[in-house]
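Protocol check, entry for the methods section draft. Step 1: assemble the input record (protein sequence plus ligand SMILES). Step 2: submit for complex structure prediction. Step 3: store the structure tokens unaltered in the notebook. Ligand used here: copper (II) ion. Step 1 record:
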Amino acid sequence: MCSPAARSRTLLAALALGAAACRGPQSALDPAGRGADRIATLFTIMAVGAAVVWLAMVALTVFAVRVHAAPRVERRTALFILGGGALVPTVVLTALLVYGLALLPELVAPAPAGSLRVAVTGEQWWWRVRYPGPDGRTVELANEVHLPLGQAADLRLDSADVIHSFWIPSLGGKLDMFPGRTSRLALWPTRAGRYRGVCAEYCGASHALMAFAVVVEPRAALDRWLAHQSEPARPPTTPLGARGAALFLADGCGACHAVRGTPAAGTLGPDLTHVGSRHGLGAATLPNDAGTFARWITHPESLKPGVHMPAFGMLPPADVRALAAYLEELQ
Ligand SMILES: [Cu+2]
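Step 3, stored output:
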């Protein structure tokens, strides 16, 4: 048996751990956007409502079992059942329902006209992202979304295969992504920082390995980022990188991947024009470094079950190193 002191220490540690889990880049309880803020408040009110109902029930049970064991008067018992069983739940649940419904119009309202428009397509198991480029032409990116601080963003969501669900818990509610239908979600980030988005609808073997990086920054910084992302890839500057660039084309990577400014123009997989600058690989589930590039190229299946990219384990290690160096240079 553990002593009461040890037990309370364990309890405190568990509570601290629980509280720590409420913070971080992917917490609906640590809101950094208008929608998430409303939802976090709704959660607190629902939790308090549930706690009140639960405490009342416990009190009634104790009362029934311990305190009031004498024979009951039938009329008072009927009142008790009617009040506790029908009236109180109806009042509490109606109040919560009305409050919850009143939040809806704001949560589903479209972003004001002129807001930055970002199109995101869910694919097994990554995210195709499209922005209007500085020259008005669409720029295709992947697995990373930048949103303007203090402004609305107008997200257009759809899917290329099965139903996915787009969710940035820190910024707002989730919304399903359907093949053949475009859904609209408005997000209003209120705190700059880096967050994590996830797929919230089970979509196959690697559903849990389908994340994306979210950066909330002032509009000017976002425009600089977008201008850079819109540019074609810089030619490699090292001999190893140059060898990698040639191998990228020779080994057929360009059949599925585009690197703008080169003959590689595939659209089946994520755009790799600036893959070296992304906050993570394999749809933001792995670190972005040369070692991970090499592992991804030779055996992606072991990093992401069911991945729709063939393994290139037959390549000589020197070629893999060159490819990795090239991809890392794609800043
Ligand atoms: Cu998914």
